[in-house]
């Protein structure tokens, strides 16, 4: 069994978790946007987001809105989950999105603030 594999499988059994991961796959989203996508209370989404961050499947980034308020946006880092069934049991492998290079991240952040 790969480290954390069972936790990932348990998490993926939750409809809200699957929606959060799908919604944050292409671009980061706020809890408000995820709450709308899941048709759930923000408190429900915050609990799922915390579990996903603890499992290493979601990251957050602080944002500044035009009104000067701070909020977080969440980004999925889960690429794939592979379940291998064998006679002696099963094995779970988790693939993660490759991390962005620091120079690319700086350029992206700079472009967002323009």
Automatic annotation (TrEMBL):
CDD domains: HTH_ARSR. It comes from the Archaea. InterPro entries: ArsR-like_HTH (IPR011991), WH-like_DNA-bd_sf (IPR036388), WH_DNA-bd_sf (IPR036390). This is Helix-turn-helix domain-containing protein. It comes from Halolamina salina.
């Amino acid at each position: 069994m790969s480290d954390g594999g069972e936790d990932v499988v348990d998490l993926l059994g939750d409809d809200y978790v699957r929606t959060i991961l799908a919604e944050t796959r292409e671009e980061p989203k706020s809890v408000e946007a995820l709450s709308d996508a899941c048709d759930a209370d923000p408190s429900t989404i915050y609990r799922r987001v915390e579990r996903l961050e603890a499992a290493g499947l979601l990251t957050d980034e602080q944002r500044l809105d035009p009104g000067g308020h701070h909020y977080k946006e969440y980004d999925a880092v889960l690429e794939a989950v592979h379940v291998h069934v064998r006679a002696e049991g099963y094995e779970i492998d988790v693939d993660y999105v490759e991390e962005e290079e620091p120079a690319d991240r700086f350029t992206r952040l700079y472009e967002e603030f323009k």
